[in-house]
Specification:
198 residues, alpha+beta, 4-stranded antiparallel beta sheet, elongated, binds adenosine-3',5'-cyclic-monophosphate
């Protein structure tokens, strides 16, 4: 549990907004440890692999999008969740493939949950202040829908431990994940704290 890992990807808007340092700082200061880091440009095939590590992603995203149209009293582009999510996915590819992204692996106790808390929920308009998406950007589903594009929300963070394992295996070779100690680990994980006083 103390070595739980999660994947974070700074999306092209995060890189273009020159927020790489600010975003890394927020995860780093939590006490989680950065154990993998790379900059890449990814294409459609890779993006599809990334989102289909969760086999339910297309169905869930389609259903969620249809629900959000219904809530606003609007008609979705189709009643079939899979057709709707294909549209969302096409827009997502345009967004994610538009420029370099920065992929990272963060490790530590509850890494998946802690990273999701620091990141905030998907839509910047409704994500809490204090989170990356709540503090550093301004997009909404409503405006993204009008413009037929993906919501620009700066980062991707794995949704569960299982997803994190699959996503990390897709983005990183095992030898690109570095196993190392930080002096900080003592204060976070040492049970007796008996190595501090001389
Ligand atoms: P994320 O959760 O990282 O991965 C899927 C991304 O697709 C999500 O961030 C948003 O950027 C985008 N997205 C998901 N659902 C919608 C939607 N209904 N409309 C626009 N963009 C979406």
């Amino acid at each position: 549990m103390k070595k739980e890992k999660t994947l974070v990807v700074i999306k092209p808007d995060g890189v273009q907004r020159t927020l790489i340092g600010e975003i890394i700082k927020r995860y780093e200061r939590s006490g989680l440890k950065l154990v993998g880091l790379k900059m890449r440009v990814v294409g459609e095939d890779f993006i599809r692999k990334h989102y289909t590590v969760d086999p339910e992603w297309f169905l869930k995203t389609g259903k969620k999008t249809i629900e959000s149209y219904a809530k606003k009293g609007k008609t979705p582009p189709s009643e079939d969740p899979l057709e709707v999510s294909e549209i969302v996915f096409k827009n997502l590819v345009k967004y994610i493939a538009s420029g370099p992204v920065v992929a990272m692996v963060w490790q530590g106790m509850h890494a998946v949950g802690i990273v999701r808390k620091i990141t905030g929920i998907t839509e910047p308009l409704t994500s809490d202040m204090g989170t990356i998406r709540g503090d550093l950007t301004i997009d909404s589903y409503e405006v993204a829908d009008v413009d037929s594009r993906a919501v620009r929300n700066l980062v991707h963070a794995s949704g569960s431990i299982e997803e994190a394992e699959k996503e990390i295996a897709l983005w990183f070779k095992p030898e690109e994940i570095i196993n190392y100690r930080l002096i900080n680990d003592e204060i976070l994980y040492d049970v007796n704290l008996d190595g501090i006083l001389e």
